[in-house]
Amino acid sequence: MHGPLQVEQTSSAASDKETAIPRYDPSIYSTPFSQLPNPKRVWLGSPSSQLEGLGRLSLQTPEVVSAAAASEIKTGRRVGLGWDMTKLEHSQFGRQKCGHTIIPLMVPGGPGLGACFDDSYAMNPQQSSQWDGFRHYSQPRKLKDPSNSSDRVFYGGTTKEEIMDVKNHRIGLQHWASEGIAGRGILLDYHLWASTQQPPIPFSNFSTHAISFPTILAMCKTFNVTPQKGDVLFIRMGVIPEWDAFTPTQKEEYAAQKEPQHAGVEACMEVLEWLWDSGFAAVAGDAISWEVYPTPGAVSVHEYLLAGWGMPIGELFDLEALSKTCQELNRYSFFLTSMPLNMPGGVSSPPNAMAIF
DSSP string covering 188-210, please? Predict the structure, then answer.
């Protein structure tokens, strides 16, 4: 049986309502989605604990990681998964461009200015390849409320007041950085799959084109992959070549849109049940929002995964070289390593990720 983990309330900023919500240990992951007491809210560990900060990354146990390394690392070929940090050159929500400054140094007693250099970065990780951390997206405090409710909590019941408190690092990225993200990755190459259907399926990544749940299952069969506990799921949409084909004017027009459209995974309960029951530790892709945006119905994948389960979401990963390598090797699984920034209280991070075959 998998019951709630009895814990003491240790966060002074947490509301009284939070104390009535069950807290679990990782054994809850053996419970099927259909039998969860509340599938939209599965919070691990006590408030502010390391276990809470890891969420579903706790599925990547030493045994799971070592087994993945043994089964996946065969050729030693490595593929970086981070996009050019200067892109998207024009992004939504007023997100700043990545700034990079070269700083010449005057070394005392040295050969003069410019004999060595530092550099500095000014960036918003959400503008390019990034992991969404648990501080990124919330869900309604009352689960019966609509997604536009202003009364909200983040994973574990963390409040916006806690996140805005610079001395409070609850559910921050430092928890992920303690061990990094490592394990088996699988790629479902939707861009390739759609192009090989009869007839081919045309779509734009800047539309509300959705990858249906039956299509996900069909891709698993086509690419001969079966999810395993602790896996990281990657879905390639082909965002990067489409973006790079845009003119500067088209990129500016996209960033100026009040209601942008992003293709992605269908937001539905069938997808959520499959993600849970398959045992994924995280999901990622090259899409801007991972799920289709705007969400057409009542289901928000971000609310379930980030605020409900503590499952990292990766967006705008560069999967172009990964796609080519998988095709060359006729193999769509690999060993993944990713080291998020060790930023106490961090919200998001460049992935610093690579696939090893």
Answer: EEHHHHHHTSSS-----SSS--E
